[in-house]
Amino acid sequence: MLKGKTALVTGSTSGIGLGIAKALARQGVNIVLNGFGDVDSPRAEVLAAGESAGAQVAYHGADMSRVADIEDMMKYSASQFGRVDILVNNAGIQHVANVEDFPVERWDSVIAINLTSAFHTSRLALPAMKSANWGRIINVASVHGLVGSAQKSAYVAAKHGIVGLTKVTALENATTGVTCNAICPGWVLTPLVQKQVDAKAVEHGLSNEDAKKLLLGEKEPSMQFTTPEELGELAVFFCSPAANNVRGVAWNMDGGWAAQ
Known about the structure:
Mean pLDDT: 97
Shape: globular
CATH topology of the largest domain: Rossmann fold
Strand content: 5-15%
Number of strands: 7
Number of domains: 2
CATH architecture of the largest domain: 3-Layer(aba) Sandwich
Number of helices: 8
């Protein structure tokens, strides 16, 4: 079904992005990884996941806050595999502070990486998708694209923006074979979230396991983390024929967080 197509997954050297990249590779999708830090290990994981399906893996280290880097990454992806059939906008950062204390440069960085980068990748990917009359844009938002939390003004603003961008992109392409949808996870135990767990452990003098329970208990009724693997399977569904008419949704996988 998807074998031979190409997916660019931003922020995919760890966490949610890596989980989605591996799930798509298992379907035979060629993957362009992007992100900072160790590249060899995630590349090996994705290659292993897609080995039996013949998936190939490339990498581009674009800084998602830089338009020129994003433009170069899109050109690189097309040169490697022909075009980007599946675009997964996952890159994200976090900073926590009250609005009046929020550093301006941190606000600018969160908005640039979590929201503006998705606009740039989408505008660059859409012409080839529309020409082929097939494409999937999957924006990794957050339950914070649906609800707010204190001290996360930039993150919540960016994720609400991603949900809005998703709806507009879906509407503009509603009569084509190009769909756009958002995934809105609750707590996923990524390196980003582990830092918040660590901070809670220090703040309250708790073990790491008890800090995880405290974090989950504040928001997530299921008391369990969503996994990158589960999110990867949802991304595969969005790319399947069964999702041909799923357009502009913000699909929360949040253990009941937004249902409260």
